[in-house]
Structure formats: structure tokens, C-alpha cells
What we know:
The protein has helices at residues 24-28, 59-65, 67-71, 156-190, 206-212, 262-271, 351-363, 390-413, 429-432, 436-441, 459-469, 471-483, 493-501; strands spanning 3-7, 13-17, 47-54, 74-76, 82-90, 117-123, 127-134, 139-146, 197-204, 233-234, 249-252, 280-284, 288-295, 298-305, 325-332, 335-340, 348-349, 379-381, 387-389, 424-427, 453-455, 485-486. By secondary structure, the chain is α/β, with parallel strands linked by helices. The strands form five sheets. Strands 8-7-6-9-11-10 form a six-stranded mixed beta sheet, with helices on both faces. The N and C termini lie far apart (55 Å).
Amino acid sequence: MPNITIHGTDGRRTVRQVPEGTLLLHAIGVDHLETPCGGNGRCGKCRVTAQGRLSSPSEQERQLLGNEALQNGVRLACLAAVEGDVTVFLMDSKAVQAISSEGAMPEFALDPIFEKFGAVVDIGTTTLAARLYAHDGTLLACAAVPNPQRIYGADVISRIEKSLGGEREALAQCICGGLDELLRQMEQEAGVAPENVDTVVLTGNTTMLYLLIHRDVDCLSHAPFVADELFGRWADPEEITLAAAPAARIYLPRCMSAFVGADITCALVASQICAKPDSALLTDIGTNGELALWHDGRLLCCSTAAGPVFEGATISQGMQASKGAIDRVAWCGGQICCHTIGDVPAIGICGSGIIDAAAVLCQQEIIDETGAFADDEESYSLTQEVALTQKDVRMLQLAKSAICAGMLTLLEVENIDVAELPQLVIAGGFGSFLNLHSAARMGLYPPELESHVSAIGNAALAGASMMLLRGEYLTQSVALAEMSETVDLSSNPIFMDNYMECMSF
């Protein structure tokens, strides 16, 4: 069998034998590579430098990499197959560094649902964020890591496909391993024995909770997309057991529908917008944009597929928020100025940087209202190392249009003039890093709402914390989910019209 020699970014050298025809992705191991598309040859992110006997580049690989990269020995691990001895050099890891576990909570009296120590985890599609509490309400520790299921794809659709393709148990084991890592990290920091953590609240979107308890996701994979389980209950021990909290009972908050999950239910608890008389719109901007509108005692919800643009997955030089990512862009002294995480040379651009860049380029008329570059250029260089391409702009247009059109559709269903909406609340870790002015300028949300918008951080985690610390909020979360009405956008003519109009900058 051929030998494959792997040189890691840490200087380590590994040699192993693999059968001829093995894809580099499997020879190296998916946990060492960035695979937003689940290794399906769509994103072009699993780049390695390789020498030796490999399959000839396919047309798909040529399109994703370009001739110059191929000439320099760059290959896509998901498309290049081993045909003989190969030497591979891994590129710098782009694992998530900037993960927010902060979220605003109102003041409330304690009435914990746990006896000794309790934990909460927000199982996001991209990241996991957690908190550990003492019975007196003291926050003992916070932790956050990338969602290990990202190796199966950056979005829920990819993971649903993997689950239906025979990897249901592997996905469940994968996420449980990530949860155990988080819990152990917090327990060690706080000096808490695992057996003393007696209650854990695990929130997330509907798909994430299905995958967690290895439930069949078939009902989420096709129309009419009706979930056969919406949770709002304590998990059975056979559904999930956490090694880092072996004695804990585990609560799974109530989801609203197949694609409006428990994360939004928890965010509503944290925001308390439904406890106030004024109308308010809450949105969690991510791979799957989830929205909730409170108006005249009604709670309308919807979800819209933005795709993983804001995680950088479909952007040519996109990456998650880690060292070397452009996270802020401005126009300074007649030229573009970029800031990177870690103040190091740029190696890519993350979601907040993409939104800033689009806003700046529109303001300077480098991009017109249709999204086209001036003078028919195909890209614009942000730095010597990083450029935004025409295709990148088109992908951003699709994502921002989906989010903004979802907002406008909910408002139109309730006959609310967008300029008269008292409050727009942006939840989620991504919103914590977002320049709200840039987001309004490039059309992520209606610009009329800029003076009424606020970001409340990881509201899903905050809401789950409130449920852990006061049992009344657990009851409230179930009531909110049960009263919610889901607006189906898939065939809604109002949404379709808004979607086309929101495509412009």
C-alpha cells in the first residue's frame, strides 16, 4: 500500500499506509481539515499542499482552486485520491477562536431547578457555548469550542444528509464528545467534581437536538417539514449520557417547529419581548436565520436559509473568526483599511468583515446597487493577501436578502409598517461582533430600523441559564413555544417579492 507522510502545522510528522484510491481527506482525517461542505467538493476549503502520486485534478477541482494554486502543489483533500506515495503539508488551522458565550439577562429572583451545580449549553450549528452555575446563582465558569460536527458539513442540511446516509450514531457520539469537552473544561476551572453536576439544560435548533439524541431526521429532510418531536422535556437516560456529568438529568427546551428551534425559544425568554406591550422583532442571524415577531399578543415565527456565508464557508477566502481573519473594514484617508483578529497579517475574512467590506464598497461606489463591481472587475483587493470576488458578493446578496426578506414578510403579515416597529433585537454570538451600521447599510436588515436595533449576544445561552436558575422560566418557555405560529416562507408570495427586492444594495 502507498505511504502518506503528513506534516502538521505544529511540526509533527506522521507516516501511515492507505489503500490506493483513498481520498486525501480520509487519509489525513477529517478532524485535521476544514470541511464546511462535509467533504462534498463544493466549498474549496480543505486545501493542502501535496507532492507525489495523486489523481489528476478534476474539472471541479480546477474551478475551485485555479491553475496557479494547482501549479504550486495545492490540492483539495476531498477530491484528490492517493495513487502512490504522497507527502502532504497541512495549512494553518482556521478553527474558531472568537466564540461568544455572553448574553444579556434581566434581573430575576433565583429558584434553581438544580441542587448542587447546574450547566447550560447552546448547541449551535457552528459553535458550542456553555456556562456552569452554583446553586446560589454564581457563574463559576464559561467555555466555548467549535461544534465538532462541522466535519460533517457547515449547515444542518449537510448533517441531515450524513445522518440519513448511515452516520446517525457517529453524529451523536461526535456532539456528545464536544459537550463532554466543554463540561470538563468548566469543571476543572471551577474545581467541581463531575458527579456533582446534577442538571444540564441543552438548547439548540431542532436539527441539532435530533442529532444529539440520535433521533431519525427523515421528517426534517423533506416537505412538509413537520417535526415529529418538539421536546420541552427531560431526556431519557438511553437518549443521552454525558461522561462529564454522569449523574445529571438533562432538559431539552421546547422547539417551535422543524426549523425554528429551542434556541429561539430560549432567546425569547432572555429578551422578554413577549412580556412587554410593544411590538418587537427578534432574529438570530446564522446559517439558518430564525425570526420571531411579537405583536398584539401573537407570536409569529419563521426560518430562512441564509447558508453558511456569515461563517465564511461559501466565500473564496472566507474563514471563521480566528487569528488572521479580517473582522473589521473601514474607509480611511481615501483607502480601505482592514483589522485582523490578533493584529497579524490577513489570511482570510470572517462574517463581520464581509459585512463591513460590502458596506464600505457600496458607500464608495466600488460596488453598485446590483452588486456588480465597477469597471466590470471580478474582484477587489482588501489587502495584499485577501480579496473579495464577484462570486463572493453574489453569495452575500443571497444570504442577506433571505434574512431581510424574512423580517419584512413577518411585518407585512401583521400589517406593521417597518418604520413604525419599536424594536429589532439581534440575538446570537455573530450579532455580538456585528457592526450594526454596516449591517443596515448593506441591507442585512431594513435601514429604517437602525435607530431601533440592539444586539443582546448569545440569547439562547442566556435564556437557557434563566430556565436553569428559575423554574418559572422553564414553564414560560414551553408556553411561548406552544402559542407560536409558524409562517411558511417556502411558497409565500410576499416573501418571494421581498427576496428579490432585498437583493439590491
